[in-house]
Amino acid sequence: MIKRVYFEGVKATVRNFNIRDISVVGLMIVSMIFTGCQSTPTPNSSGVDKTIDPNESAATVNGKAIKMEDVERGLKQQTQGQEGRLSQLELAGARLQILETLIQQEVMFQKAEKEQTVPTDEEVTAEYNRTLQQSGMSKEQVDKMMKESGQTEASARDLLKKSLAIKKLVDKVTGKIEPPKDSEIDAFYNGNKEAFVKKRGVKLAAIVVDPVNNGEGDTTVDEQSAVLKGNEIVKKLQAGADFATVARESSEDPQSKLQGGDLGYISEEQMKQTF
What is the CA radius of gyration of the chain? Predict the structure, then answer.
């Protein structure tokens, strides 16, 4: 049973998810620690809510508590140290997304424990050392980066252990599934040819400027202020500024801000409906 929690009055919910996604996400987070994910200090770069107790339980999954410090650590990693640039509403949304991932990961890890796919300490150490070696970084560099991202070697190993356990669980479950026959593949393809044709579209990135006064220190409160900010953004880009960096600094849309403006691939039909 999962206990519902609240951030700034927003209720956390759990959507449907793919078990492969959880193991991949976990391994990606571990890799980020060793791949030079740098952050640039800002005047208010902590982004930490001083009212939050790191030892407080953010959620409980079958009696297992997920602590607020795990959520805050994920926040720092996801925003690459730029959480201080987010409004309280954006921080709340980001925390909910991270908590959702942690809940899903814990559910899968508990299943992995039942299925006895949890790796041994020796396996975790071997994978940890392999990842460290592949990074090409010294131990001092890794320790510094971990500190900046709110990680410790113990928390990194724990995350790696869960990720490996879930990956083993996925392999165990999918290994029981018999591969389809050629005739079945042909029949499915012939009956669903349209699904294998990539629709026309674009990979879209955007920097959003909202003329509505949203509070929380919003500087674009009308059309005039929005146009001024938009012109400043255009000048930066024309001067050669990195689009993703400018999006993280200036976009007023949470998704665009967190993902460096990247909105993913959008089909022509979706473009017509949305834009």
Answer: 22
Please state which CATH number belongs to domain 198-274.
3.10.50.40
- How buried is residue 121: exposed, middle or buried, by Cβ count under 10 Å (0-12/13-18/19+)? exposed
Written as tens digits, the pLDDT of the chain (275 aa) is 333 333 333 333 333 334 444 444 444 444 444 444 443 333 344 444 555 676 788 888 888 888 888 888 888 877 766 777 777 787 888 888 888 889 988 999 999 999 999 999 999 999 988 888 888 888 788 888 777 777 788 888 888 999 999 999 989 988 888 888 999 999 999 999 888 887 888 888 889 888 887 766 677 888 888 899 999 999 999 999 999 989 988 888 877 788 888 888 888 888 888 77
Domain boundaries of the chain, sorted by first residue: 6-175, 198-274
State the burial class of residue 98 (Cβ atoms within 10 Å of its Cβ: 0-12, 13-18, 19+): buried
Asked whether the whole model's pTM tops 0.70, one would answer no
Would you say 110 and 162 are in contact if contact means Cβ atoms under 8 Å apart?
Answer: no
Angle between helices 153-175 and 139-148 (to 10 degrees): 90
